[in-house]
């Protein structure tokens, strides 16, 4: 069964590499400004080959969105960090580049579509599916998948919430010996929330030693995220 999970990504290698190339093209200017044109070209080439190598190791999380994209983005970031390690990049330096990657990835989506995607999270249909997936993650957890609970809104401070009890991306980074990157990936939610209107409040994450990742969403509300690395933006 685990082999089938690995095949989920390798069978999509051509498409996933094409997506990676598109994102790296958007990021090339930032990498060039930091490391110079020649080094940037070498690093992006190395990152692509590293991403190809990483694909079979990515955790299978059910094949559905947004969780599969969380894992794919983690693969991008890990590959890029390993390419930057040749320039003795720290986790913080990589984290700053991750933030720019996230900025470019979300900004490529037209504003009207961003507004639709943000609002769709608060629809009854999405809420129903989220509750179903939360229950499934607890009763039939995938070997390396997310385990989470749905939290009903309180009618005032938040519309709904999600508590993550097991994080597939954090555990994957641990497997890869790159756990120090996890808080920087968590910090990307700040930018996503602001652009998509999530109104996310979060006080703790598994990546920074919490018992859960406590996401609380308020449509159109302010974004408030506690993190030790948010100064990078």
Structural class: alpha+beta
Number of strands: 5
Give the averaged pLDDT, no decimals. 88
Largest sheet: 5 strands, mixed
The CATH class label is: Alpha Beta
Basic shape: globular
Helix content: 55-70%
Please tell me how large the radius of gyration is: 18 Å
Unreliable residue runs = none
Order of helices and strands: HHHHHHHEEHHEEE
Estimate what percentage of residues fall within beta strands. 5-15%
For the record, the count of structural domains works out to 1
Fold-level CATH name: H-NOX domain
Alpha carbon gap, first and last residue: 41 Å
Physical arrangement of strands within the biggest beta sheet: 1-2-4-3-5
Q: Counting H and I runs of at least 4 residues, what is the number of helices?
A: 9
**What is the correct CATH architecture?**
Alpha-Beta Complex
Concise account of the structure shown:
The protein has helices at residues 2-10, 13-35, 37-54, 67-84, 91-107, 111-120, 124-139, 168-175, 182-196; strands spanning 147-152, 160-166, 200-202, 213-217, 224-225. With 233 residues, it is an alpha+beta fold. It is globular, with a radius of gyration of 18 Å.
